[in-house]
Amino acid sequence: MAVAKRETLPLPRTIMGYVLRTSGLHQLALAALSIAVFALSAVPLELQRRIVNDAIGSGAVRTIFVLALAYAGVALLEQSLKLVLNIYRAWVSESSVRNLRRMLHVQGAVAAIELQSVQTTGIEIAMIVDEAQPIGGFVGISLSEPLLQGGILASVIGYMIYLESWMAVLCPLFFVPQLVFVPLMQWAINRRAAARIRTLREVSSGIASAVVSTLDVPAESERVDRVFALNMGIYKFKYSMNLAMNLMYYFSVAAALGVGGWFAVEGRIEVGTVVAVVSGLGKLNDPWGDFVNWGRELSVVGVKYRLFADVVNGLDAEPRG
Known about the structure:
Radius of gyration: 25 Å
Distance between the termini: 33 Å
Strand content: under 5%
CATH architecture: Up-down Bundle
CATH topology: ABC transporter transmembrane region fold
Number of strands: 0
Structural class: mainly alpha
């Protein structure tokens, strides 16, 4: 019986090892674009503050127009850089997906497993159709996304603390609770994601076996129901996490409006500062959500990649989830 011959180096054991091996130079370019984007992130907040406080307060119409044009120009530059970054990421991701599928489909790189095995055929189908996409898709955002979102968070938080020192207290109230419940909920999602992958492979193997024998309909139906239950469990945890994160954002805005409004009435701060702080919290919500989503992807894709690499490398180890 023929056995697959390895024509490529074994896949690294970790998803980040794979990222660096296959797209190291592209990651540097993506990192440079990410730095350029987050370097501009606090500029619109300062322009808003100056328009409200300085220009409107003094009645300088020309200054108002200049600052408004500057705001539009910065926004145009920032969004254009994001467009380039996103397209570049997509190209890196899709190139990785294509390489993974070629590795399995063209080269038949399922080492130490008999190619004539129906079970192997089913697993390979699942890997080519379902598993390569999220693994390859993560490659494009693997390093640039945390750099971009972390940079935005750092610059906006630093700017808000520069404006008002009490923001140094408000910002941790926004983040600290999420540092507790997000990892716990993500751990539960990971367990279900790993079980889902294994079950889908069993479904694919069962379908492939129907080519040479009778399909075990009750067993396949049970597996499909199992996948449904696992997916619903993932959705429940995912959307519950999103709800909790959104509530933390709205609570922080309420606190900023309450404290900021109180200080503004007493003349301790300017109205423009309150506007800038509330806008800054809005600019924190999206990058923080994206940062958490990246962590979620890293965790889940890491599980998927280990299962993927075990098959490609011909290992029979129990994946760690």
